[in-house]
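Suppose you are handed a protein chain with no further information: no name, no annotation, nothing but its sequence. What can you learn? This example shows the usual starting point.
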Amino acid sequence: MKNKELQTPLLNGQQNDDNNSVALLNNKINIIILGLCFCILFSAFSPTQILQTTINQNLGYYTLALLYSSLSISNFISPFIVSKLGEKISLIIGTLSYAIYIGSNIYVTQPSLYISSILVGFGGAILWNAQGSLVIKYSTDETIGSNTGLFFALFQTDQIIGNLGSATLINKAGLSNKILFIIFMGISFIPIIGFLFLNYPNKIETTIKSINIQDEEETKGNEKKEEKEENLSIKNIFKSTIILFKDKPIQLLIPSLLYSGISQTFFFGVFPSLIGVEWVGYVMSVFGFFDALSSFILGKLSDKIGRKLLILISTISFIIGIILIYLANKSKITQMISNNNYNNYNEEYKILCYFIGSALLGISDAGFNTQLYSLLGVIYPTRGEAAVGVFKFVQSTATAIAFIYGPYASLFDNVIVLDSLVIIACVLFMFADNFSKKISNKDTPI
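A reasonable first move is to predict its three-dimensional structure. Written in structure tokens, the prediction is:
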């Protein structure tokens, strides 16, 4: 018996194009909402984190080490929680944990800081896993780079708002730490409103075909089968996250993930402690500005010129930036530029070098963040939760270890470790990027 066929392929094609345009626009709007919510949340959290090592000194290092240790361990169960609760509820739960952590700084006690650090580590794993899963679901192979860049561009403006805000409140308004953290805690609740407006990702049709009745019935049957398989996979998601470590692309990306984690310790622990309270807000706002701007630009370029060149630029930016900061701190450059008899000039040139160095570090951070997310999204489009879980596990483990040895490592030690690691990461990232081409070739219709 001959199947009945709907003889309107051109109309269907036009409808698919219109549907795709609407879906792409809706997904882009959701990315913007997600990025803005993260910007607001971390405008409160980032200054809190930066001030830990400045105000609480060694206690600050230990609490941050505990935070990232908790984050690391929690990444094994966060994919399961996100799959079970859904991304929207997971984002709200994660946000509440950040608010509690910020609130624990209003009246600082060692037990409260330790407990809240563990809690925000757990909540942070859920928050970031949900974020990574949504960005991947809101994207296609053609839009993953630009969407990742857009998210990080919006998100990283938190460094500008948060650091300039804290610098103004401390230096100009003369507010106490207690009032400062009360304000930050209030701000941290605002993103919950934005998360409530997030919609489920719209499906993008990538092919245009004439439809027949039998095909529709088969499609419905396949959808039910996929739904059943998805429910089964939730039970095994912990196992699938661990199994992902056996994949060649993940193994090649481990140095990049380690570098990403250890570099966070330098950006938000070591570097701010060199600058001092008076200038730290202004210098770190420059870091945030270049991080945000570069995230948008490099995300767009990623879809057009590929990831390899961009990761190389990011690597070079980091090496130059951290060496400049090291030389400025040791007064090597400042002695050469200014007459060493004038300490005021020496200090001014040191701060100038910190500003330039922070700009270069911001470019580098943007490059690695956008390209890592972009590559993982292309290689693991259907295993977003597990891929992000692995990413955050390795990254946060490295961050925790770095915060533990942070008080005992010299600036020179940090420079040697990070410069060596970023070079290895850059080379192996380029090999890992080849797997995205193999996947693209597999998906190309013949």
